[in-house]
Amino acid sequence: MTTTASPYIPALSFRWLTPLYDPLLKWGMREALFKRRLIQRAQVRPGESVLDLGCGTGTLTLMLKQAVPAARVMGLDGDPKTLSIARRKSARLRLPIQWDLGMAYDLPYPDGSFDVVLSSLVIHHLASQDKLRTFCEALRVLRPGGRLQIADFGRPIDALTRLQAMIMGNLEHAGDNVGGRIVPMLLQAGFSSATEAAPVRTIFGPIWFFSGLR
Q1: Dihedrals φ, ψ of 176, to 5°?
Q2: Spatial CA neighbour of 34 closest among 107, 120, 109
Q3: Using one digit for the tens of pLDDT, what is the confidence trace for 10-50?
Q4: 177 vs 6, 172, 196, CA distance in Å?
Q5: Is the separation of the CB atoms in 142 and 118 below 8 Å?
Q6: Per-domain residue ranges for the chain?
Q7: Measured distance CA(191)–CA(138) in Å, rounded
Q8: Which of 21, 23, 180, 202 is least buried, going by the fewest C-beta atoms within 10 A?
Q9: Does domain 15-213 have CATH number 3.40.50.150?
Q10: For residue 147, how many other CB atoms are within 10 A of its CB?
C-alpha cells in the first residue's frame, strides 16, 4: 500500500506569514539561546558533514557554519521561498553552504551521507506517519555512529506549560510532541539510543532537545 504524505505546512503555517518568521523566532522564541544549545549538543567537528533538516530561512545553518567553518554544512527545506531567503543571507555573509529543495521524509541523499543531522522546530509540523518516515530517513543518511539532534516542542513540565500544551496539541501536528512520544518514535525508527534533555522555556511552550544515535 502506498503511503501518502500530509500537505506541506510552511513556516508559521501560512506562506504570507513567512516574512515574519525570523523576527518572531528572534524576539518571541529565544531563538539564539536554544539554537546555540542545539549546536553545542551536536558537537560538530571540523571535516564532518552536517545536514540542517528543514532549515527554513537558514539561521541555524549559518550559525553552525560560523561556529565550525571547516564542517561541510548543507540545508534542506521544502519551501522555495524560505530557501531563497537563506541563500541571500549566506551570500551576504559569504558563507559556502549548499541549499537543497526537498522534503524531510524523502531526502535526496545517498545512504550514509552525513555525520550529523540537525532539526529545529520542524518535527511538530509533521503528521505522525511523516515524523516516523523523517526519523527513518535521518537514520538512513547518517553514517554509523552518526547522531541526530532535534530542538522542538515537547511534553509540559508544570501548570503553565500544560496550558500551553493544550493549545499546541491542537495546532498543526504537535500532539506527538506534547504527548512525549518523540523518543519512542526515534527508537521505533531504528536509532540505537534516544534521549531528551532539559528544555528552554518560550512563549509557546518548552523547547526540548532530542537525540538519536545511529
Answers
A1: -65, -35
A2: 120
A3: 554 445 444 555 556 555 566 888 999 999 999 999 999 99
A4: 17, 11, 11
A5: no
A6: 15-213
A7: 10
A8: 23
A9: yes
A10: 22
